[in-house]
Specification:
Elements lengths: L10 H14 L3 H21 L2 H5 L17 H11 L2
Helix pairs in contact: 1-2
Length: 85
Amino acid sequence: MQSQLTVRLTDNLEREISNYAKRLHLKRSDIVRIALERFLKETQIREEQSPYERVSNLIGAVESGVSDLGQSHRKHLLKKLKKHA
C-alpha cells in the first residue's frame, strides 16, 4: 500500500530536484523517494556503528608537522597563543 506525503520545499531545492529529474529522466517524486531511502539507510548504518568506527577514517588523516604534539601539546599551545597575543 502506498501513502502520500506532502512536503514544502524551498524554491532552490525544488529547482535542484527538477533539474536532477530532467537529467535522469525520472519523476521528481522518484528523486525524493531515492533520497529518503538513501538517508534512512545511511542513518541506520551510522547508528549500528561504534563511535570508533564512525571516525576511524579520520584517525591519522591529518598531520601537524609537529613530532611531539601529543606529548607537549600544552607547550605548543601556549607558544601559539603568545605568538598571536
